């Protein structure tokens, strides 16, 4: 009886997979970070590292369940493989203006030489040429660490972005890089005891 149940479940599962005949292929090698913007009904930006090493941005105009058009035309490479560590963690934060309007995504990952790096979606900027990106601060990551988080903070005066990682300068704990919107500068703080 138990076995029959298992077999029935397995068949149902396979049938469920086969039923999804119309799907968009995605070959992500690690983390997938997703953020919602305020356009449409559940418009979603999805970022992941593709098998060829580049970071890809996928855009859907609704949640998958909502059957609206999934804008596959926006399946684009946003950071080339030579700027991305293979197997990098990926995280993303959404910014909002003080008026509450969507103000773009900031995506964080590691470069091949272990530098905390940033892609800014609304200006499509990344790599060493992006003067605004955290990449230019050359904050080094502990070799082998895949710890990474990021979020926007527009409730704390002056604060805008907080990015947590394991800094080569302070291994064995979390360091936050914070972007101060008044000074437009990044700085580092280690988790206090
Ligand atoms: C890497 O793969 C992604 C996802 O399939 C694709 O969009 C991108 O064009 C590829 N990059 C190169 C340089 O071929
Ligand atoms: C990181 O560690 C790997 C494996 O131990 C080693 O091959 C590599 O040279 C190290 N990289 C750096 C930048 O120290
Ligand atoms: C950040 O600072 C800029 C320039 O001073 C300002 O226009 C913007 O509204 C600020 N953003 C937030 C979220 O406070």
Automatic annotation (TrEMBL):
Residues 1-19 form the signal peptide. The keyword Signal applies. Keywords: Signal. It comes from the Eukaryota. Gene3D superfamilies: Fucose-specific lectin. The keyword Signal applies. This is Fucose-specific lectin. It comes from Dendrothele bispora (strain CBS 962.96). The lineage of its organism: Eukaryota, Fungi, Dikarya, Basidiomycota, Agaricomycotina.
């Amino acid at each position: 009886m138990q076995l029959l149940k298992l077999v029935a479940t397995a068949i149902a599962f396979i049938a469920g997979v086969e039923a999804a005949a119309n799907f968009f292929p995605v070959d992500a090698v690690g983390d997938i970070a997703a953020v919602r913007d305020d356009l449409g009904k559940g418009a979603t930006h999805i970022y992941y590292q593709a098998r060829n090493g580049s970071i890809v941005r996928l855009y859907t105009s609704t949640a998958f369940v909502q059957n609206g058009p999934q804008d596959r035309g926006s399946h684009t490479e946003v950071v080339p493989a030579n700027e991305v560590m293979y197997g990098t963690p990926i995280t993303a934060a959404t910014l909002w203006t003080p008026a509450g309007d969507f103000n773009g995504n900031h995506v964080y990952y590691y470069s091949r030489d272990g530098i905390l790096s940033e892609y800014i979606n609304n200006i499509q900027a990344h790599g060493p040429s992006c003067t605004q990106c955290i990449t230019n601060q050359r904050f080094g990551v502990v070799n082998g660490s895949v710890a990474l988080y990021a979020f926007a903070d527009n409730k704390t005066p002056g604060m805008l972005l907080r990015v947590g990682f394991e800094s080569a300068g302070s291994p064995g704990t979390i360091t936050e890089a914070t972007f101060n919107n008044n000074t437009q500068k990044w700085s580092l703080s280690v988790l206090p005891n």
